[in-house]
Design brief:
Blueprint (H helix, E strand, L loop, with lengths): L5 H10 L4 H12 L2 H17 L9 H20 L1 H5 L4 H4 L6 H8 L2 H10 L2 H12 L4 H8 L3 H30 L1
Helix pairs in contact: 2-3, 2-4, 2-9, 3-4, 4-10, 7-11, 8-11, 9-11, 10-11
Length: 179
Amino acid sequence: MNDLDAEDRLRFEQLVLPHADAAFNLARWLLRKREDAEEVAQEALLRACRFFRGFHGGDARAWLLQIVRNTCYTWLEKNRPMELSVEFDEELHLQTCPTPETIAIAGDDRERLSRALETLPPRFREILVLRELEGCSYKEIAAITSIPIGTVMSSLSRARRQLYSVLTNSYHKEAVREV
């Protein structure tokens, strides 16, 4: 924060730093390892500080989360490029039933939900985390991910279907084991 004058430093502390937990949360879900997420979230906060003079108002949380997202994908490209190439085959997993949230709540099994979320490709995890865990609007997600709102909505729908599929399969496997 040495690059900022006292007034900008105060604005940064008031506008951006309150969202440090959301930044770590997004990094944690995208990268899946706490240590990696801590490193990347810290790097993203440093980048945000470095470029804060270019922030001219608006939604500071969305601005920071966009930096976190970009930093995560840069890190993934460098350290785990295979994860980014995995995509979900919609034809194999297309189902229409209760939502993944309903299954998780009914089973009251946060651990199963966490494990299922971690199996999703990073782009689906990010959409679900931003919407369901961080409470971002479609507009905010579109700004953070730099994709159109319609794509956000369709990606969220596909992510929920994939999560449902994973949760359903794990539930059925556990039920078979118990019998």
